[in-house]
Design brief:
By secondary structure, the chain is of the alpha/beta class. The chain has 12 helices and 12 strands. It has a 6-stranded parallel beta sheet with strand order 2-1-3-4-5-11, with helices on both faces. The chain has a 6-stranded mixed beta sheet with strand order 7-6-8-9-10-12, with helices on both faces.
């Protein structure tokens, strides 16, 4: 039997008859490993006297053993970003790294990490600009619209999905949909707007768009929706891009005398618990944020390992979830 100091993860994997990745997942209780396989790997590790030494491994290969993650400041009130972070955390742990969360603010700095992940990087954000210019391998979720280019991008076709959503509204009787969306500092918001304008152009409709800040407070979104509802011709559908906004608008719409799901169809560009539990439940685009976070982390580790090259792009699938808020008249 090998002495403990010569036992590696590969030694454990060979003893258990599994791959190195499966052995790592089993020992870390991550990934999709059956209870039987996990028990087999741990039994092999115990027999061999295997003791992981992550710090020593990182020192040997000149690595900090950590990656950095930056997301917009709306993190604490956004289900989307919380789930995105959990996805990054899970994938980072599976790669035997720690995660450093980078906040915005005057005291923010570039941390000592092997690489960076930026979720929805906003152009004009000085911290994002600093991170993009740090010279570290960088992956963004959606493209960065400011100065600098990421080494890798995980992106979704939001314009096409917005077209699918509008087609659904048209099939349910809507002829004059309106849109509440953030400005162009976010690539996601810019693509949502592009999909809406393109759809309207294809039907010779005048776009009805209200723009709010990316992190707009509820009152700003409410005011934007009221302005749209007062336009002529009167909208018969409302699409809300900001996360959580559609559900928060329900009382406003009722006060305005609109019957959601009947004379006004309502949809959200971001799904979440508030959409599912609303009355009526709100049709929404499921951006699958946890899987997006995992995809960003996997791409960054592929870049660090040389298994992906600079300029790599990976498409992240998203889905339309139809609910009662767009059932239409009848």
């Amino acid at each position: 039997m090998p002495s403990p100091r010569h036992v590696t993860l590969m030694t454990v994997a060979e003893r258990a008859g599994v791959s190195k990745t499966t052995a790592s997942d089993a020992l870390r209780s991550s990934g999709r490993v059956s209870p039987e396989t996990r028990a087999l790997v741990r039994e092999a590790a115990a027999e061999l006297g295997y003791v992981p030494n992550g710090s020593a491994r990182h020192l040997r290969r000149g690595s900090t053993g950590a990656i950095g993650l930056h997301v917009p400041e709306v993190l604490t009130r956004s289900d989307y970003y919380m789930r995105f972070v959990f996805g990054v955390v899970e994938a980072t742990a599976a790669h035997d790294h720690d995660l450093t969360l980078i906040t915005s603010g005057p005291a923010a700095r570039v941390p000592r990490v092997d690489g960076l992940i930026l979720g929805d990087p906003l152009s004009g954000d000085p911290i994002v600009e600093r991170l993009m210019g740090a010279g570290l391998p960088t992956v963004t979720c959606e493209r960065f619209r400011g100065t600098g280019r990421a080494d890798g991008v995980v992106l979704s076709d939001h314009a096409a999905m917005l077209g699918d959503l509008l087609d659904h509204l048209g099939e349910r009787g809507a002829a004059r949909p309106a849109l509440v969306v953030a400005g162009g500092e976010s690539d996601w918001a810019a693509n949502v707007r592009r999909g809406y304008v393109r759809w309207c152009a294809g039907r010779r409709l005048e776009p009805a768009v209200a723009t709010v800040p990316f992190d707009a407070p509820h009152d700003d979104v409410h005011d934007a929706a009221r302005r749209l509802l007062d336009t002529d011709p009167r909208p018969d559908a409302l699409v809300c891009a900001p996360a959580g906004a559609a559900a928060e608008l329900l009382p406003v719409l009722r006060k305005a005398g609109r019957r959601v799901g009947a004379d006004l169809l309502l949809a959200s560009c971001v799904d979440g618990p508030s959409m599912r539990s609303a009355d009526p439940p709100v049709t929404a685009i499921d951006l699958r944020p946890r899987e997006a976070g995992e995809a960003c982390a996997r791409l960054l580790f592929d870049l660090l390992a040389g298994e992906a090259g600079p300029g790599a792009e990976r498409l992240h699938p998203i889905d339309l979830v139809v609910r009662a808020s767009t059932r239409g008249p009848g």
